[in-house]
Design brief:
By secondary structure, this protein is an alpha/beta fold. It has 2 domains: 2-115, 3-Layer(aba) Sandwich (Rossmann fold); 119-302 and 334-354, Dihydrodipicolinate Reductase, domain 2 (2-Layer Sandwich), CATH 3.30.360. Helices cover 30% and strands 25% of the residues. It contains 10 helices and 16 strands. The two termini are 31 Å apart. 42% of the residues are buried. The protein binds nicotinamide-adenine-dinucleotide (NAD). Residues 1, 28-31, 34, 51, 66-69, 71, 89-90, 116, 118, 176 line the site of nicotinamide-adenine-dinucleotide.
């Protein structure tokens, strides 16, 4: 993910509105090969295997951290202690306790802190947000949101840190993908009241580097079946994150149905927004969206939008909000939102353990 950031910052010239002028000056990675990749970025003057060297540099104002989850808390706290702003990677610590500790430190440090979640920056996702905010959908009937992969479908795929509780966290796939799917529902103020979760550990062993089978103890798939308070009504909200969803590469989606209208968007069909209005006939309309971004770019509006574009838009939002120039645009996930995602993970773990509905007090 560090390479993705380097690439987004290198494309900063594509933004017609430039909130700040970020320069990538320093990188840290314990892997020689990972560090060597950054030789292609001429502005990088510090390449180190010890991230403390970055934190000691006066040249550095803000730090992006993308490391395995078991390292989040320590490194995020060190970044804040060094007086730097932080774009953290999700899930913002291994678990709720760590997330709350990081959020507390963010508050007391006074630094600007946000958490990475780029999918809401797709034009289609933004249109869903606008439709919800406008009230044109009438009373919301139900909401579905999710993020599906098939990255773990192959049982012979070697294990890595994301498939082990000790490094990924007990919440497994929820730690990996949960904030992506929860970001908009949380931002819309839909307040989860109670949850019944279905968690599945489908592939329980995987080969290690020596082809020996070792435990793969994280859940692969998770579904939160939630009653949420939406505009004063108890409303069904279903959120799904899956590493084993046959046929899906990186499918992020959100669907909102209402009494007056409906709207749905999926990155599986990235140009397309589906909308429905209550009329005499039951008509879903398919709209070709093009490159309609929050921060205008040189790319013409007829062209397609993709993952690196969403990443660039997220970074523009981070720097705009950091300098007080976000306006009414959609911003990156806040520390409180990341904490709430962890509260939902813990509730799901409890629900799955007890095989029951868990009441939430968020
Ligand atoms: N926003 C997204 O779409 C997205 C996508 C994938 C991963 N992520 C998140 O990004 C983070 C990293 O995931 P990834 O897929 O890039 O993992 P990765 O395993 O590909 O990369 C992690 C990097 O951290 C380095 N590292 C490990 N310990 C270190 C240390 N002490 N100091 C410096 N570097 C160290 C590793 O050498 C490696 O290069 C996770 O929090 C993950 O959830 C986000």
């Amino acid at each position: 993910m560090g390479k993705e950031v380097a690439s987004a910052l290198a494309r900063w010239c594509a933004l017609e509105i430039q909130p700040g002028q970020p320069v990538l000056t320093a990188i840290a990675d314990v892997s020689d090969a990972a560090r060597a990749w950054f030789d292609r970025i001429p502005s990088v003057s510090i390449k180190t295997d010890d991230y403390h060297a970055i934190l000691a540099s006066k040249e550095v104002d803000a730090v992006y951290v993308a490391v395995p989850h078991d390292l989040h808390e320590q490194i995020y706290l060190d970044v804040l202690k060094a007086g730097k702003d932080l774009l953290a990677e999700k899930p913002f610590g291994m678990n709720l306790k760590q997330a709350m500790n990081i959020a507390l430190s963010a508050r007391t440090s006074g630094r600007f802190v946000r958490c990475s979640s780029e999918f809401p920056f797709y034009p289609g996702a933004q249109r869903v947000v606008q439709a919800v905010k406008s009230g044109e959908l009438g009373r919301i009937i139900d909401v579905r949101s999710g993020f599906w992969h098939s990255s773990d479908l192959d049982p012979n795929k070697p294990i890595n840190w994301k498939r082990q509780k000790a490094r990924c966290g007990e919440a497994g796939v929820m730690n990996d993908l949960g904030l992506h799917a929860w970001h908009i529902p949380i931002r819309m103020g839909w307040k989860p009241l109670r949850v019944h979760a279905q968690l599945q550990n489908i592939v329980t062993e995987r080969p290690d580097a020596n082809r020996r089978l070792v435990p793969c103890d994280t859940d692969d798939n998770a579904i939160w079946n939630v009653d949420a308070m939406v505009d004063g009504h108890d409303t069904p909200l279903r959120v799904e994150v899956k590493r084993i969803a046959p046929g899906e590469m990186n499918t992020w989606f959100i669907e909102v149905t209402g009494t007056e209208g409906c709207v749905k968007y999926s990155t599986k069909d990235p140009k397309t927004l589906w909308t429905f209005r209550r009329e005499k006939e039951q008509i879903w309309q398919r709209i070709d969206l093009g490159h309609a971004t929050q921060f205008p770019v040189i790319t013409g509006p007829i062209f397609e939008f993709g993952f690196p574009d969403a990443f660039l838009q997220m970074w523009a939002a981070f720097l705009a909000e950091r300098s007080g120039a976000l306006g009414d645009r959609f911003g990156c996930a806040t520390p409180d939102e990341a904490v709430m995602a962890h509260q939902l993970n813990e509730a799901a773990l409890e629900s799955s353990r007890k095989r029951s509905v868990v009441e939430l007090n968020l």
